[in-house]
Design brief:
14 helices; Aminopeptidase; Leucine Aminopeptidase, subunit E, domain 1; 34% helix; 479 residues; 21% strand
């Protein structure tokens, strides 16, 4: 889809379809054909209620009148939802070029939201369909405003396209999106934007560096694990080194502690955190943000075999911590433990990790919020604000010594799972807490939001959740 900003009025563009939003208590700002759009409102066929759509033909164009609800409630997230609704109608109408008349006094975030909602709603994953459906996808999206809105249109395009690329990685089957495939994608990202360097450690190198927790998960699979490190340094970079750490278990069978067969196919999504980190680093580089970023992705399968780690085994992480494996299906924290310690060793000054880590977070928060746990109040607030801007809300859960006590081991320093099932998401975070030292850190448990999260613009399958939050956080560090 070609996306552009213009200061021309909608009728001066090549659009065959024009979207005009109307707020509660307001009328159409620029009407056509002697008041056609206003008459649609006056007759009640069009309404100002949020997301209500009506279509009329005038001046040899299609016009979609969309209700935007209360102006004071209309934010970037509502813009995404409204844009997705309009996009759905354009598909039904067979439109090829859509022009949004940007609402008067709309800020940059709303302009970007209109782009993001359209691009995300237009996403389709049909790589394995011999005969993909021709569903009338848009070819061009235009944003018409009195002032030049090229910058927010550009930012919204970069972020939404990166999120869709993360969705591609998520939706690929586990036999395609292997650890080696993700390492190759990292190399591609480095070739697509300036300022990125990539280093990939093989499984042998992971073991040589004493990453016994990560290696324990990898040892049951025929697919070689990869530790992927992306380094980005923007022009005139300043500020703290930001480490983005992603769990990328490309298929999670549970290992010896085998998962139930029902819906196990969804465990290809257990690499969603890693997908978000890869594509967020790419987006940050495309935006040329003047910051320094480490992207660290631990990629492996978790499989049962004669070489797989067993319940009761004890392993040693790279920071020297010994871990008793109570449940091999609590593998993500083992991978992340060594990745987090590696981030610290590389000089990270702020850390965010993303992981589809626990089913407990789905029970607690469902699919509307991801869980956030942090060792630093200011950093937690910054990450929470980035999630709000991105339309990816976070809910903070506590860390406390009483939870840390639950993971103390009998035979090793700590255990990797609490069999009492108390505070499952928090005790997992307390496990990770052991590997970040004093560096401000936030852990995002995205198990409920990474796929099938119910967003009107996300559809089914991978959602790319986290890409936008990480980019918004990076932009905040720039400012």
């Amino acid at each position: 889809m070609r996306i552009a900003a213009t200061t021309d009025g909608p009728l001066a563009t090549t659009a065959d379809t024009i979207a005009v939003g109307v707020f509660d208590g307001e009328d159409v700002a620029h009407d056509v054909a002697g008041g056609t759009l206003q008459r649609l409102l006056d007759r009640g066929e069009a309404r100002r209620a949020f997301r209500h759509l009506a279509v009329v033909h005038a001046e040899e164009r299609r016009w979609i009148v969309v209700g935007l609800g209360a102006r004071e409630a209309f934010d970037a997230e509502r813009a995404r939802i409204a844009a997705a609704a309009v996009y759905g109608r354009t598909r039904e109408l067979g439109a090829t070029t859509l022009c949004w008349e940007v609402p008067h006094h709309a800020g940059d975030a709303i302009v970007a939201g209109l782009v993001e909602g359209t691009v995300l709603a237009a996403y389709r994953f049909d790589a394995y369909r011999n005969h993909p459906e021709d569903d009338g996808a848009l070819e061009t999206l235009l944003l018409s405003a009195h002032d030049d809105v090229s910058e927010p249109v550009g930012v919204g395009t970069v972020v939404a396209e990166a999120q869709n690329r993360a969705r591609d990685l998520q939706n690929l089957p586990g036999n395609a999106a292997t650890p080696a495939f993700l390492a190759h994608r990292a190399q591609e990202i480095a070739g697509e934007a300036d300022g990125i360097a990539v280093d990939v450690l093989s499984e042998a190198e992971i073991r040589e560096r004493g990453m016994g927790a990560f290696a324990a998960v990898a040892q049951g699979s025929a697919q070689e694990a990869k530790l992927i490190v992306l380094r980005y340094e923007g022009p005139d970079a300043e500020g703290p080194v930001l480490a983005l750490v992603g769990k990328a278990v490309t298929f999670d069978s549970g290992g010896i502690s085998l998962k139930p067969g029902a819906r196990m196919s969804e465990m290809k999504f257990d690499m969603s955190g890693g997908a978000a980190v890869l594509e967020a680093v790419g987006a940050i580089a495309r935006l040329r943000l003047p910051i320094r970023v480490l992207g660290i992705v631990g990629a492996t399968e978790n499989m049962p075999s004669s070489t797989a780690v067993k319940p009761g085994d004890i392993v040693r992480a790279s920071n020297g911590t010994t871990i008793e494996i109570v449940n091999t299906d609590a593998e993500g924290r083992l991978v992340l433990a060594d990745c987090l310690a590696h981030a610290v060793s590389l000089g990270a000054e702020r850390i965010v990790d993303l992981a589809t880590l626990t089913g407990a977070i789905v029970t607690a928060l469902g699919d509307s919020h991801a869980g956030l746990m942090s060792n630093d109040d200011d950093w937690a607030a910054a990450v929470t604000d980035a999630g709000r801007v991105a339309g990816e809300p976070l809910w903070r859960l506590p860390l406390h010594e009483s939870y840390a006590d639950l993971i103390r081991g009998r035979y090793a320093d700590i255990i990797n799972a609490v069999e009492s099932r108390k505070a499952g998401s928090i005790t997992a975070a307390e496990f990770l807490h052991r590997f970040v030292g004093d560096v401000p850190w936030a852990h995002l448990d995205i198990a409920g939001t990474a796929w099938d999260n119910g967003k009107p613009y996300a559809g089914r399958g991978g959602s790319g959740w986290g890409v936008h939050t990480l980019v918004a956080l990076a932009r905040r560090l720039r400012d």
